[in-house]
């Protein structure tokens, strides 16, 4: 004889509370300082799913915090990966964020040379064009 499991009702979706909206706006401004323009879908999480936004922000902060690698080194890696993927928004955002935390144009150029070695000339040229446009020095 099979035992019936009781049905569990899902809690209704949480709506943002007044204090929470101010905190997420602050988080977005901080994030924009680091990476440039925040994608629309991520911005919409602040109201559509504030709990998910908070979790993503915690994860984001955990990843970018200094550990065995510095934040600057991680940014350089992110630029190289974005260039290899030829993701214009990600390359520009990562370069802008890198410049904001003190990564030099020469450091990014060196990382792009490694990208060239592993991902080919198009990835290097793509990243270099974005670099020259964002870091006009």
Q: What is shown here, in short?
A:
With 137 residues, the chain is an all-alpha fold. It has helices at 18-35, 40-48, 50-64, 71-85, 88-100, 105-119, 121-134.
Mind explaining what this structure looks like?
The protein is mainly α. It folds into 2 domains: 19-64, no CATH class; 71-134, AhpD-like (Up-down Bundle), CATH 1.20.1290. Helices cover 72% and strands 0% of the residues. The protein is built from 7 helices and no strands. Helix 1 packs parallel to helix 3 and helix 2 (40-48) packs across helix 3. The chain is globular. Residues 13-22 have low confidence and may be disordered.
Q: Could you please say which CATH topology of the largest domain applies here?
A: AhpD-like
State the low-pLDDT regions, or none: 13-22
The run of helices and strands is HHHHHHH
How far apart lie the N and C ends? 76 Å
* Average residue pLDDT: 81
Largest sheet at a glance? none
Q: Strand percentage, roughly?
A: under 5%
Keyword list:
single chain; 137 residues; mainly alpha; AhpD-like
Topology:
Blueprint: H1 18-35, H2 40-48, H3 50-64, H4 71-85, H5 88-100, H6 105-119, H7 121-134
């Amino acid at each position: 004889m099979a035992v019936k499991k009781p049905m569990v009702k899902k809690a209704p979706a949480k709506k943002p509370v007044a204090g929470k909206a101010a905190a997420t706006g602050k988080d977005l401004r901080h994030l924009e300082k680091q990476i440039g323009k925040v994608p629309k879908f991520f911005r919409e999480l602040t109201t559509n799913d504030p709990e998910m936004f908070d979790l993503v922000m915690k994860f984001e902060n955990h990843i970018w915090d200094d550990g065995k690698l510095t934040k600057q080194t991680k940014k350089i890696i992110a630029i190289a990966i974005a260039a290899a993927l030829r993701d214009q928004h990600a390359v520009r955002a990562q370069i802008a964020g890198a410049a904001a935390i003190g990564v030099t144009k020469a450091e990014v150029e060196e990382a792009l040379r490694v990208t060239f070695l592993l991902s080919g000339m198009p990835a290097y040229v793509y990243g270099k064009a974005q670099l020259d446009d964002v870091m006009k020095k």
